[in-house]
Amino acid sequence: MGPTRQCHSLLLILLAAAAAAASPEDGTPLRLPVSERPVYTQLPRSAAADLIRALNLQPRDASVSRRDGDEDVPAGTLVERPINLASMATGSAGGAPSVGDLGHHAGYYRLPNTHDARMFYLFFESRGSKDDPVVIWLTGGPGCSSELALFYENGPFHIADNMSLVWNDFGWDQESNLIYVDQPTGTGFSYSSDSRDIRHNEANISNDLYDFLQAFFIEHPTFAKNDFYITGESYAGHYIPAFASRVYTGNKNNDGVHINLKGFAIGNGLTDPAIQYKAYTDYSLDMGLITKSQFNRINKIVPTCEFATKFCGTSGTVSCLGAYFVCNLIFSSIKMIIGNKNVGWNTKYTTNSFFQCFEMS
């Protein structure tokens, strides 16, 4: 049996063991949650290409001249266009700024040291002062588009029920020049035609982000002197420390444009699943959401989660998918008991999907 088949077999064994451990006392089999998102026939690269065309960001614009016979010359080219999302937004209580007062941009950066990877980003200049800090936002996942945060969390706009844009009175662009990046390659509208460009560790992801920042500040030199902060949530608990370290190292070595890094912020970060997932049951018991009996039953999954997470750290690929599903059985088992109780949410969130990312394309 080859390594791939061994990983698949281990994945099935882990899932079966964890599901059996989590089964209710009455013998009702535990159903593994499935995604309720519609299945999209459009491939990510096709969806990205549609957006590029809509923004007049054709892939050929992001290409550089290559010497004949040398296909490995890095690109490192940034293509950016102004966008007018504000023209679709209704006013806020404090009065909405006009399109002419704003600098909203969308672009692609053709990543160097890749075969064909392009990183998509959106940049919103501050509604306050151009001297406000530059803040980059990284949504987690891994693999969640940063448009999730842009339109549902801290961006300039929210999407109303009628699908129109509404100014967000609490958008971070009130006090900062805000960058949203779809990363790593394959996330959201960032894509490559070559599967070898898919990233598998924080070091490569951080290098890509650092290369992007260098190109960004060359394109926008007036912002290079501003204070710079790295922010994000969830799995960005992995990205952000690595990215901050890469920026620090680049500054120390005088690599390119000096980035005025002042700090970073991680919201609800996932940094160590083996430790954090087992805290779900402790919290749920302390809050009276589950009984002691339910606590003991669900906690039987924890050793399998810890083992699967450790195995993922040494093996990667399919084993990490197994760890993801096994550890999420802890969360989904609690959710099956308590239903839709979401602290801080004003509306019901009805999906029982394992997958945390929304379809943004």
| CATH fold topology of the largest domain | Rossmann fold
Question: CATH first level of the largest domain: which class?
Answer: Alpha Beta
> What is the beta-strand fraction?
5-15%
Query: At CATH's second level, what is the architecture of the largest domain?
Result: 3-Layer(aba) Sandwich
CATH superfamily of the largest domain: Alpha/Beta hydrolase fold, catalytic domain
Order of helices and strands: HHEEEEEHEEEHEHEHHHH
| Major sheet attributes | 7 strands, mixed
**How many separate helices?**
9
Q: How are the strands of the largest sheet arranged?
A: 1-3-4-8-5-9-10
Helix content: 25-40%
- Total number of domains: 2
Protein name: Carboxypeptidase
Family: Belongs to the peptidase S10 family.
Signal peptide: 1-22
GO biological process, one term: proteolysis
